[in-house]
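The aim of this short unit is practical: by the end, you should be able to scan a pair of folded records and say something sensible about each. We start with the first protein, listed as its amino acid sequence and then its structure tokens.
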Amino acid sequence: MRSAEGRRAATWSARLRSAFSRPAWMTWLVALALTAAFVLFLSLIQFKTEDIAGVDGFYHIRFASIMRSQGLKPNFPWLPMTILNPREFYDHHFLYHVGLIPFTFGDIHLGAKWSAIFFATLAFLSIWLLLHSQRVPYSALWSLGLLAISEAFIYRMSMVRAQSLSLAVMAVGLHWMLMRKYTRLVPLAFIYVWLYDAFPMLLILSVLYVGALWMSERRFDLRPILYTGLGISLGLIINPYFPNNIVFIYRHLLPKVTATTAVDVGSEWYPYQTSQLMENSPLALIAFFSGVIALGLQERRMDTRTATSLFIAILFGIMLFQSRRFIEYFPPFALIFAAIAWSPLLGKEALKPDTMKGDHDHPQVIYKLLRNLTAPTRFQPALLLAIIIPGIFLTFRASQVTIGTSKPYTLFAGASTWLKENTPEASRVFQTDWDDFPRLFYYNTHNTYLIGLDPTYMQIYNQELYDLWVEVTRGKIKTPSGVIFNRFGASYIVTDLNHKAFISQAEADPDLEEVYRDGDAAVFRLTSH
């Protein structure tokens, strides 16, 4: 009998031969070609402007640079009047910030932009891996469709934020569910918890998969839910920020999910108008409804993978109609559903009579048209390319326009420099807008700030102070200097020039002196405290 070492050597030898076989080499070549296409497309959009898409990316890249210099769990003194105060701070993007660290060597502005390209490419490749593993015909072409599916989706993928990696995790999770590799969901869910606070979505995907499995195969297998739940539980408990992470989820995420907060939390939490969605994501909607049509052309009942992808696409569609931030998930999963739904009708199983309903269910002319368009396999890639290439061109042009409307990345650079050079270290700055914090933090970690990243962080910490801050910033309090110093402990104020009502009150306040102004912002100093 062969020894255990001999058997292991034979196994590894077989794996090496498989990895370097011709089909494997072709797969690697396709992966490299897709990587090049994704990187080129995303780079041409990202570097259309020097500015950074969105706002939070300024915070993420700066915090990653702090982690590189101070350790993976640095102190966080910068938002002392929020639930991210030094005692309660929880980095709910921990692994994302770790992933950003390699991009903080050198110019972090340039590193931020390259990080968005890199992580979005990983997400797109994860979706290709999913389709390829499911033997979807022309999986590479379907994956290129990600570049055409939605201008708003591409814009979100161009942000320096964790949603691209979140999409990658969900695609890998779905891949492992469909491959019945359930135990792998434990480490994946664990990593997701440390990566991003959207981790409950993986549990929801496992529930949808179990439901699809029961519906299509009449098998009730709870292992995907149990393994995912186990990974999430371990990730929450074995966590560098435990138990602050649990408290944060309860205090911050739960009100958002249950819609119990009345605070304006930014446009991404509000829905698109229907006309906006039709304009920025038409191919996503077309892909979804084409998948439904493909189901109607098949006589067989839906299998597990089709039902799962349909349920996921419907879920994210519903969520998108509640909040525009889910544009980062609905288009790719609508594409996944369309690719899987059309799979039995393409390739070697193209629109044969026995895969379609009888002619009595379809007009003869429609049957012949579909058969002539899709049955010859040589026409199928051309048909897909005829849809994808114009879509890529239109999405590319629209995405460049959208990212070109980003605010200048130098916004608050001058005001931040003045504050850093003319104020005591750790002195508190009163700002008039909560979403100014990321840019202020990016340029100046010398000071601390009042509010940032999310207005509910301050509202939850102290409702009365939050309401007072709103009154001051809207210019409803005359001589605001006393309130700013006595209630907020700040002697310096930074404001953009759009807060005209507040600026008028500040200019009329004898205890406030304007000490800096440029084309974007102004800084006031209290003179009597």
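Turning to the second protein, read its sequence before its tokens, just as you did above.
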Amino acid sequence: MVVAALVGCGHVSKRNDGNASVGGAAASGGNGSSGSGGPTPSGGAATEPPACSLSAPPEVPLRALGASALQNELAQLGQSLDGEVYPEPSSLIYDDQEPNASATFVSGHAAFVQGLARRVTADAAGLGKLLGCDVKAAAQKCQAKLFEFVVARLFRGQTSAETEAELQQVFDMGQGLVGDFQGGARAVLEVALQSPEFLYRVEVGRPVEGAPADWSRPTDVEMASRLSFLLWDRGPDDELLAAAARGELTDPADIEAQARRMLADERARAGVRRFYRELLRLTGAFPEGHASPELTPEIVALMDEEFNGFVERATFDGPGDYQALFSPSSWLNGRLASYYGLPGVKGEAFRAVELDATRYAGLLTQPAWLVRPSSATWTSPSTRGWIAAGAFLCQVAPLKPPDAIVTVQPPQEPPALTTRERLAEHASSPACAGCHQLIDPIGLALEHFDGAGRYRETEGGLAIDTRGHWAPSGPTFEGAAELGALLANEDTARSCFVSQWARFAFGRAEEQRNECARAELLEQFSHDPSVPELLVALTQTDSFRFRKAQP
């Protein structure tokens, strides 16, 4: 049933590991050609010789809305969501585990949307403003507007005769119980906000004429959602839905044109923020009791704004290339600069600030992620290294190391040993050495940044040693600045960066069969390291334009 309530149901996995391919190759950008194996979408009939053979299209997992996308979609109802608490629906797509939602989410979300629907419909004038009609004077017109809002905004264009019949049934029941239009509207919103069409990115697909039976492609409406959630972290706007209605989201040139329009829109900044926040595990609330007393909620909020502003500026307000992510700069206001001990920044407004190139390396040294695993007396270099090695090098130690690698207890008194020396004693254990050799050198390169995110030269009066290397025998570095320079220029890190965006775009981990697509994306990225151009190229891949047919 289209609007079946989620209450009492489980959460469908977002990953299907039976076929986790990234798919075919990216177009070289600008010409609209697919440049990859699989069917040519133009006209829906022809096929082309594959430049890189893809034996089967990728299976597409049923993806639930992430926490930020859910917030963005709920914001369409015009109610303040500040301070509202309801459980987050899923784990990060970078984790090697099946994302799922607990019964807590199911019941918590149900209670939350009941209250939200009540607030939306409490005032007839406010409800009429949301729908663009007069609830008291034109109830029939407003009912049509209500259904249009649900289908276009909440169901993201997905509709059928069954949908309309069910919406009418729910409206009639709600109106009958309460006795007015607002009661019917409240019932519709309550059910719609718990439905699979709202909480999941539902795709069915359609056959590809002239292709094998297992090849399918998203419908134009489904493609609108693929684009909008990748680039905006929210559902499609009116222009995307109108293009879908005209059948203009099938040809790769049309998809590219929409991608470029969307990247030029301010809403693209939200999609970029979400990627980097997930990449460096900046989701959810700040962990209480882990940081210095000086690291107040106000400072944490300013650090998050610094992080968001930095990645937005690095992507959109300049050349937008990969190297900009590791530039010695940040996004600061006077309050935060004073906290860091950086002179010359005044006022409440944030602005771009150039920093000491011997100390800072852009994204790598952003305090917002460095302070999350730390405490007042312990920087947790192993956890920092685990996060950074996974994010920038795709070197992922067995999942669950955070529980093990933080078992070194922070000192209760001023340390007689540096963090490096104490960690070396722990990591020398044969059971621990394998993982620590991968992650510790990277985490220790960041030791000049204390648990509260501020630069320091010494630790407890002892000199800090930040030398390290990429395990097992990679290049050496000393400190965050040298490590950042390596990440900005090494092929290993560039390849990982492309892989991370592919995972983010397609919602699944990679397998060997992805090498073909990754090679072509990397080839383009080596010629043009523009992050926006990489995003355009991702929309041209077979994995973005096609899917495995539903059985």
